[in-house]
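Reopening this one. Same input as before:
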Amino acid sequence: MNKGLVRPMHVDDLVSILEIEHASFATPWSLEAFTAELKENEYARYLCLELEGRVIGYMGLWVILDEGHITNIAITPDHRGQHWGEFLMRSMMEKMMAQGMERMTLEVRVSNSLAQSLYKRLGFASAGIRKGYYADTGEDAMIMWAELGTDGKVT
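Same output, byte for byte:
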């Protein structure tokens, strides 16, 4: 696998981010939503994954005390299945552990077994269901949590 570059997301990246967002989600976030996250949300941390100068993925997280709530993650359709999502998530987890974060959480569609498998590999475990969480379909979300170790490893 070529070496990807994980770096902070900038407003200049949003054209690429929106392309990935629209290719990935039935109800994609808007330009305004991403712009507000980057410019106005002091709790937000967003990273881009670049490969050969092209943004191929992104991930967002809200930092609340010593916890991180993953807001979104997506990889371009032509780079899925190549472990880039795992690479990006591991990068975010390492950065957050270095800043003292102790745990992370996310919601994932109960039907998205592929994503659930990735999250389990990264140390996330199911902690319950949010009924009707996804507004577009009314689908339930699985809540997942990971405890982060002080030694730089997921526990």
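So the earlier flakiness isn't reproducible anymore. For the record, The radius of gyration is 15 Å.
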